[in-house]
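Reply to dn_fold:

You asked what the input looked like. This is it:
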Amino acid sequence: MAEITQEMRDEVKETAYNFFAEECEVERDSLNDDTNVIEDIEGDSLMVLELIETFKKKYNLNIDLKAIGQYMIKHQADTIGKMIALILLIIEHEDKVADLD
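and this is what came back:
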């Protein structure tokens, strides 16, 4: 389990905002934690997986799609803020994220 630092939080947030701005072709400044990826910026649900893959490589994380899916069934990640929170949980707990309530 990794300990989440403020630097990591800031990096995840910055990377997520830049990712969605580029992928959805919107201004970075128009995004906030409450931005709904599908409804507000015409993104798709697979974008979170692509973003997770970025951090999976960066932090050499051991997590598979099944664990992410199990967590997301209970905890919908439809906004940028919720996706950032999910990524931080994955960095911290890896495959054990599926066991969190």
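The helical segments are 6-23, 47-58, 65-74, 80-93.
Hope that clears it up.
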